[in-house]
User: Fold these one by one.
Assistant:
Number 1:
Amino acid sequence: MSFAQLKEITDAAGQLQLPFWRVILEDDRKERNVSEEESFETMRQMYRAMREADRSYDPSLRSASGLAGGDGAKLEQFRRQNNRLIGDFLTEVMEKAVKMGESNACMKRIVAAPTAGSCGVIPAVLLTYEEQRKTTEDNMVEALYVAAGIGEVIAASASIAGAEGGCQAEIGSASAMAAGAVAYLEGGDNDAIVHAAALAMKNMLGLTCDPVAGLVEVPCIKRNVSGAVNAIISCQMAMAGIRSAIAPDEVIDSMRRIGRLLPSCLKETAQEGLAATPTAQQVVKRLREE
């Protein structure tokens, strides 16, 4: 990846008179020495794998720990009811995020976007958008390039690993990527894209990685829902003309610094936070006895 900052992507887009997504495609093409068509088809297959993972969700499956499974079906049933506070779009986003996270916990095939623990955020947002907005698959693939560009910058300048940066680096990164992608789909310019990502990331700063029993299940799966919904509201703020008071690249840098400041007990070690609660310890004891 040739870009360490979002500003480098937007500057390149301006100089080359290319949309954000195509700058990323061109960079991928040169880096991997493939044609434009090959690059695009690789990304298309990635998107189709997300779609297939969503379609193959099995509500009867339970994870080996018994902590995950079936909640996606509950949200699907809830979405079909009238007695809810939010609209159909956000409710479906929530549903798909949980389904993808549960599929991961049940060892089904998913796309790490950018990680397995945050695999529900981007698919939930993009698949729901495609279904409800009736847009083309090509547009969705372009949006995935936007998400990929944002994710690569975060990975280069900060981190996408919970063990290094806490959950802000996983769910926070996925949320920022999804926010930028949907801002693109909504017709946002490059400024709107990067500020949507910044607004989403800001809302996730400081999020700890405290998995119960060290498993990517609790609280990880439900955090995918928060990250997905956060992406949508951040996009909407950016599309309304709201801009992050802190420059997008400075927000990413802040996430890096915060990650370094977080103690190791809050970075995927299952030593503190929710993982240290009495309920969590009972889970650990049960799993050890089994």
Number 2:
Amino acid sequence: MNTHQFQQNLVGLQDNMLNFALKLTANSDEAHELLQDTTLKVLDNQEKYIDNTNFKGWVLTIMRNIFINNYHKVVRTQTMVDQYADLYNLEVLSEASFDSPETSYRIQEINQAIEKLEDDLRIPFSFYLSGYKYHEIADQLAMPLGTVKSRIYFARQELQQNLKELNLER
């Protein structure tokens, strides 16, 4: 498919794209913005389109992925992490009902072991425990992705060793 045909097909799909965007966003302004973002992305990635592939399906998949990515971005930006809060002794743990005192004690041991980690390991590891993905942690801490991955790995290794030593001493 040449560039002119590609653009004609894209223009012909605008009504379908807008309807799909309205279903996704349930808001006219956001739907138009999603339509524009999708149109630009499709034009930027024209060379990735393979002939004899369902063009409409390809375009609407791009739109859906943009919508999902934007949604995740909004959720992340609205989530605030208090850098000064004690991330290891969250209220959830104190309010949770434990099966036994031993379970409660073990959780306290784990929290203490995490607190003993050096900041360069503890901070990325705490983000990881809070559910952040590696690339999100890298963005938050302004670090390379590989550094974040290695620090989380080393934090796990150190925690395993420290907890293993605690269990041997008893």
Number 3:
Amino acid sequence: MPSNDVRILAQAAVPTAAAGAVAAVVSAVVAGGKGAIGALVATVVVILFMGIGLYVLQRTAKSLPHLFQAMGLMLYAAQILLLFIFVALFRDTTLFHPKAFALTLLGTTLVWIAAQTRAHMKAKILYVEPESTTSGKPGNPGHSS
């Protein structure tokens, strides 16, 4: 992964992890230990899903740039759908508090999207690759008179 992609990943993952830690503390106070576990599991799920999605999107941008926008929209729709499926699957679990899990999943997803958007806006990504000055072109082919 190029350094710019790693920087964007870090700028999205760190605020998401911080929001997950805050959610875990709040969930522990409100719902006890199972609430904290639910919040931590939700945070890990969001970071994994969104991180993998960012990786796939960056690879698509490099190999198939003409599909980048469509792939991005499809990827976000698929991620949100998968997160809803996770909430539905763990609705009746006894491993952790389901409401803490669902609320943390929603909150950390929103934090990830906001942080990733901010990271992309702050990144200085070239739209066009500049040509090399030593590409073998003649110097100044103007008139010699």
